[in-house]
Amino acid sequence: MMLRRLALALLLAAAPAIAPTGAVAEPFRAAVARQVAACWSIDALSPEAQATTVTLGVDLGADAVPQADAITLIASDAPAPAAQEAFEAARRAVLRCGASGLPLPPDQHEAWRHMELTFTAGAYIS
Amino acid sequence: MRRLCQTFTAALTAATLGLCLAAPAEARLSITLGTPVIEPMPFALPTFGDEGGAGGMAADISAVIISDLQGTGLFERIPESAYIQNLPSFDAAVSYPDWQAINAQALITGAVQAGGGQVAVKFCLHDVFAGSLLEECMQFAGDAGSWRRVAHKVADAVYSRITGETGYFDSRVVFVAESGPKNQRQKRLAVMDYDGANVSYLTDSSSIVLAPRFSPSGDRILFTSYSSGFPQIYLMDVGSLQIRSLGEQPGTMTFAPRFSPDGNRVVFSLERGGNTDIYMLDIGSGSLSQLTNSPAIETAPSFSPDGSQIVFESDRSGGQQLYIMSAGGGEPRRISGGSGRYGTPVWSPRGDYIAFTKQNAGQFHIGVMLMDGTEEKLLTSSYLDEGPTWAPNGRVIMFTRQPPGEGNPELWTVDTTGRVLRPVQLGGAASDPAWSPLLP
């Protein structure tokens, strides 16, 4: 029984760090989505790239400004070149509208210093 | 005890895994975006520099590139007066923050050199917010007299790199140039750059000409002429302007010709004894085969890009509708189903859409639909829009717009979203456009 409690304690100790997303309140997340989406233009992309969903890994400094050299393509549902064009359009959006910092709580930098932004325009183009 | 140990081991494993996942570098805030904005991409293009002998040509080439990109409706140039950084030479270091400050997403820098009857343009495309080149700088060169083509090639390269699609700026359009009063119209074949520049005439106005079509390689043109007194299709060699008749059959009229994708065959309409059917002619052998056999009027055939199917218009069901059949003939299937009349179908070079003219409720439309007839989308609406032709990349359509009254017909373009609709800047009446492939 003691061993079982120990195991449970270990799991519980690890739990909060497994899902850090919840640490940032929904209003902040919605504000970030709104701010970045304001610069996300896909009109100039091919139909294939417009329909591509891409997920970007974005690192942010303490000032909540995305670091240009730390934006990576984590996942996409289409092969290159559509994925590359969709990634570049998404990266431009992050850098343009994040240039002055994203609206995130400064005292929670650890919770948002690494972000995954998923851009999916399927509903928009259908 | 063994069971407890197994539980503990499993828990430890899970905890260890959890701790690994919880390492700071792995913690990620996930956010999903689903609604992009509709806006052209702002770009900066400082007038290209003169690296010797270019003179005013550097500004002219810059203007053509800007016009090409802006004309798509997908890009918008930021005025030069807003630029912060002055780039004194092609090799000058780009200060990306200066271009970010004016919200330029792309920066195109370039220089022009001319001499010995040649012109060369080198250029670079920068991703301003990434602070890097989008790809290696490039150079195009050509005869000084073809400087507009060089400019179009630069614009095509920029367009292609950003959109991921081939461009369409370095292309030509053959059309019917019209002059004279409406009751005594003179019509002759002419070609122009896709943007209306560099018009030259291919025929005189001694006989009425209709419906020219480029071959897939752009070196020949099919058209219909009344030079014999009745409609007859002809083949013109673009280089020599030599003309010969095709598929001549005594007592028949032939019209609405179009090349097969391999350029070796022509599909067209032949009227015999008051009945019009679709025929195929092998240009090399002269062999003729009949593809449809119906008492209806069957015309305006157009091949699918792979050459396996033909879309055409027919009134076999009572009204004018669109049908698809095998390129070898056989029973066609109707694809248009909406109210109104459908005609002049043209298969997109991408193979996805079929463009058409639709007449309904007193208006004409240019529209597109998928090859099964679904997803019909009307892109234009006016007193008289007709005769669509696709740009080589299948993203833009050119057509004829005729205003009511005494106005002259004009050529217009519309993109496949229907949002970017504009007239071609051509200084005269024109109709029946047909787009060439991209020039080599």
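qc> Residues 42-126 of chain A form a domain with the Fusion Protein Consisting Of Minor Coat Protein, Glycine Rich Linker, Tola, And A His Tag; Chain: A; Domain 2 fold (CATH 3.30.1150).
qc> done
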